[in-house]
Amino acid sequence: MSSIDDTEWENRRTVLDEGRRDTHDFFDKEHVARFLRNAGTGTDNTGRFFLATIVASHQNPTVLDIACGTAVNHEVFNNHKVPHQYIAYDRTQQFLDHAKSLYGDTIKDYVRGYAQDLPFEDNSVDISVLRHIGEHMTPSDFYTAIKEALRVSKKEVVLVFFLDLHSGTEHLVEERGPDERGATYFWNTYSWPTLTRFFAQLGVKMKVSRVTTPGAAAADTIVRLIK
Length: 227
Fold this sequence. Notes:
Blueprint: H1 6-16, E1 21-22, H2 29-34, H3 46-56, E2 62-66, H4 72-79, E3 85-90, H5 93-103, E4 109-112, E5 125-131, H6 139-152, E6 153-161, E7 175-176, E8 183-186, H7 192-200, E9 205-211, E10 220-226
Parallel strand pairs: 1-8, 2-3, 2-5, 3-4, 5-6
Antiparallel strand pairs: 6-10, 7-8, 9-10
């Protein structure tokens, strides 16, 4: 597993997360084990099935799953017998540790890091996935993460939103908390017109799909940025 020491990690957190404490850092082991694995959010999620079809459209691609949590997507790809080489990437070490306990060497690598600062060479993976992460970052950081994902990806970047994009011109940014531990989290709703103007500057083709999971609290808007 790739890793950095605690001092370097704290320095990166201070710069890239502006010193914020993330709620995920305080999950207990039971919460980590069930995180995003409930009915409608886990391996039965239709949006994850759709991701599997995207991965299957490429020949045994290397998939960088940014903010992967405990690597549920990898399990879904395996369940659907989709050949792929999976890199689990997350800022939360305990998510990566739990994923490793489940999947071991079936995952190509486990890397701790931030979406805004990917430690990979240009065009070193085929596909990058940013699923349900934009809502939890400042728009500026999200834009940086998208550019970073495009930099390291040969073929495409897949963005998945769980909060409906709106037709206004401003992103709606909300930081909730802090709780008793000083942890906060963002819950942002993005402007589709503003996002599309940003995408137009990136020199990519765009495909958009809307996927609903029966019984789930939210539908997925899936945006493919194809190089």
